[in-house]
Amino acid sequence: MSAAPATATAPAEPLLVAEHLMKRFPNGVQAVDDVSLTVHAGETVGIVGESGSGKSTTAKLVLRLLDADDGTIRFAGTDLRGLRGKALRDVRRSLQLVPQNPQTSFNPKLTIGDSIAFNLTVHGTRSKPAHARAVELLERVGVATGHAAKHPHELSGGQLQRCAIARALATEPSLVICDEAVSALDKSVQAQVLNLLAELQRETGVAFLFISHDLAVVEHVADRVVVMYLGEVVEEGDAAAIWRAPAHEYTRALLAATPERLLATRDAAAAAPTP
Ligand SMILES: Nc1ncnc2c1ncn2[C@@H]1O[C@H](COP(=O)(O)OP(=O)(O)OP(=O)(O)O)[C@@H](O)[C@H]1O
Ligand SMILES: [Mg+2]
Fold first, then answer.
1. Does 151 share its domain with 180?
2. End-to-end CA separation in angstroms for the chain
3. pLDDT tens track for 108-129
4. Which percentage of the chain shows pLDDT scores above 70?
5. Same domain, yes or no, for 138 and 151?
6. Within this chain, do residues 70 and 180 fall inside the same structural domain, yes or no?
7. To which H or E segment does residue 112 belong?
8. Which residues contact residue 262 at a Cβ distance below 8 angstroms, ignoring those fewer than 6 apart?
């Protein structure tokens, strides 16, 4: 028997390691102030915090949609801040986004099928297999495949958000950042979409960085939680432990403000049919 390679025993590096991220906007707002977080392969990390706490800015820094003023971002062993051009485009196959508002994130002039396929053709897949894959993905996320030929305004918010998930998963990413991905949906549809994400994670091993101002939603999906307040991480750790015994005053206030919603979401999710 051959000896195991030396790397087999080395602890796996997290998929995403962001350290000491800083971002100040020209208006003087320090939106992100020394934020560090990690995401391991296959896990869901929640970022929670009130409006304006810097969640989306953190996401944009990780996605390289904005440039950080300082800090480091390693994704799948690569220094993201050092990437430019084709190398950055290539990484984006593995690092995808489900944005808050599907109504504005789909090009109104393209059909749903074209939009999903575009996320593959832009990375070099030919048009025909890209469209075939788009139809497969729609089926997987519980949207009738006939909707591939429709335009965004012809679909409901819940259907469109499923399409946005299909579009993000098209490239078989290892990390998907969901920025308020279910916030615009009503509670029962929200629960169905959260269940769908959990199923897709079990099937594909994708990791999620799941951003929400809604603690109930984060509680439902996250293995670990990062709590942000005024651009800083004030608390982080195992989700269940934080809910049980929040260490920071701000987390306690957040939890105290939403106890009934925690139960409501959990019950809705348990009752929701899986697609
Ligand atoms: N492009 C920008 N220019 C100037 N200030 C900005 C810009 N984008 C965000 N900000 C400010 O940075 C801070 C953090 O904003 P961010 O959008 O990251 O918060 P958030 O936690 O995502 O909030 P929400 O829950 O409302 O989405 C806020 O004070 C916001 O007004
Ligand atoms: Mg935001």
1. no
2. 46
3. 999 999 999 999 999 999 999 9
4. 89
5. yes
6. yes
7. helix 112-121
8. 215, 216, 219, 243
In a shared domain, residues 151 and 202: no
Distance from the alpha carbon of residue 226 to the mean position of ligand 2, in angstroms: 14
The domain in which residue 164 lies consists of 104-173
Evaluate if residue 34 carries a pLDDT over 60. yes
Q: Is 57 in the pocket of ligand 1 (CB under 6 A)?
A: yes
Is residue 204 one of the residues assigned to a domain? yes
- Collapse the DSSP code of 58 into the 3-class scheme (helix H, G, I; strand E, B; otherwise coil) and give the result: helix
- The answer, as to whether pTM is greater than 0.70, is yes
Taking the centre of ligand 1 as the mean of its atom positions, its distance from the CA of residue 54, in whole angstroms, is 6
Residue 163 lies in a domain: yes
Final residue in a domain of this structure, among 173, 201, 221: 173
Task: Please work out whether the CB of residue 62 comes within 6 Å of at least one atom of ligand 1.
Answer: no
* CA pair distance 18, 75, nearest whole angstrom: 8
Mean pLDDT across the chain, nearest whole number? 89
| Closest atom of ligand 1 relative to the 213 alpha carbon | 25
Q: Which pLDDT value is given to residue 110?
A: 96
**What DSSP line would sit under 199-211, residue for residue?**
HHHHHH--EEEEE
Q: How far is the CA of 211 from the centre of ligand 1 (A)?
A: 13
What is the number of structural domains in the chain? 2
Residue 37's pLDDT band (cuts 50, 70, 90): very high
* Residue 204 shares a structural domain with residue 266: yes
Give yes or no for residue 214 having a pLDDT over 70.
Answer: yes
The mean pLDDT value for 153-157 works out to 93
Nearest-CA residue for ligand 1 atom 5 is: 25
Distance CA 28, CA 89 (A): 30
